[in-house]
Amino acid sequence: MKLALINATVFPATGEDVIEAGALVIDSATISWVGHTDDVPQVDTTVDCAGKTILPGFVDAHAHLIYDDVSDPYTIELSRPLERAAVDAAVNAKRLLDLGFTSIRDVGTRGNIAVTMRDAISAGHLPGPRVKASKQIISVWGGLGDMHPTHIFKREQYAAALTEIISGPWGARDAVRQHVKDGVDWVKCEASGTGFNPLCPADRDTMSFEELQALCDEATEKGRPVACHAESRNSIIKAAKAGVTTIEHAIYLDDEGIQAVLDAGIAICPTLGLYTAFAKKGAEFGIPAEIVAAHNVTHEKHAKAIRRAYDAGITLIAGSDSGLSVFPQGGGLEEVCTYVELLELTPAQAMLTMTRDAASVVGFDDAGTLEAGRRADVVIVDGDPLDDIRTLTRPGSIEAVLQGGSLAAGVLPGA
Ligand SMILES: [Zn+2]
Predict the structure, then answer these.
(1) What is the CA(53)–ligand 1 centre distance, in A?
(2) Is 400 helix (H, G, I), strand (E, B) or coil?
(3) Residues 6+ apart with CB under 8 A from 124
(4) Domain ranges of the chain
(5) How far is CA 265 from CA 22, 243, 293, 312, 358, in A?
(6) What is the mean pLDDT of residues 23-34?
(7) What is the whole-number distance in angstroms between the Cα of residue 60 and the centre of ligand 1?
(8) pLDDT in tens, 227-280
(9) What is the dihedral of CA 247, 249, 252, 258, to 10 degrees?
(10) Which CATH number, 3.20.20.20, 1.10.10.60, 3.40.50.620, 2.30.40.10, labels domain 2-57+369-410?
């Protein structure tokens, strides 16, 4: 069965070029042809997509499927049982698909929910994006993941935590071995604190270089890339030198950090939309005043540093870190708007971070662009986000989502 989508603005995401009056032919699960509507080959069904834009399925490179209207570590870990977190993940997977996300990387879960979701979705038991999964965020005592005050937990791990706390290089290796045994695609760790944990702020270094290096060595040996939460200045440099594959957040990125990331040839996932939301909307969502104030101080500097990183040639990948009350699931759409509004990227440059570049860095090698031979993960948007990026966040603009050539969400134009 061959389906042609015609008369659309097509963004193949192979570069910044757009095909006006473009068309796409899908042959069962695969894209078989991309070009101008005038040249479309013979097909079985044709859908007129006038006024629409056709893009590759979106990729959220920094997702947490279990985050659902949570405000802090307490609501993530202590207020909800693991069973509820699994239900939240299933609900969120469908939400993300409805918004055009056909692939995600989950960078921190409880239990083994992300791997379970990955397998359930790929088996067709649940609707959702394809998932590259990690397990808990590997952390250290006094680090990002040691979230509860010492009078509640003193060097004791909460059984169903979002994080796993290790000590020393061998502890790091042990955790990686366990995560690989349990089926992860990626290993997630942290090298700095976060505004999210008042006990370990964003500018504090946490995991030692020895621990990071052992973690990366063990993961690399087992063919698993490492995503590292690194907000503080030194953590970015240490993580890059230790061998991680992506730096998450990079708030206090400076010139030495940019050089370290360039030398390592790795990517940054800046999650700018989340920090902008904390700064602009945190107070109305009950985020403590000191966290809002801290983000107001950092988020514009952060944006400037990320722009310098982009200009230096560092690959940016769009990830949302969404699911918090202040920044709901699907924040990846907001994320790319932030790249246009704060980084002054063109809409096409911003879209590449959520399609081609995110897919390639995360490891969805068959997706991310609209080219003959690629998997037919396709989003049809009403309007033109390459002209006005905010089209993406307009309610109802994500008109149809095809996953592997099948309609997964919305309706085809004219149907
Ligand atoms: Zn995160």
Answers:
(1) 30
(2) strand
(3) none
(4) 2-57+369-410, 58-362
(5) 35, 10, 33, 12, 15
(6) 98
(7) 11
(8) 999 999 999 999 999 999 999 999 999 999 999 999 999 999 999 999 888 888
(9) 40
(10) 2.30.40.10
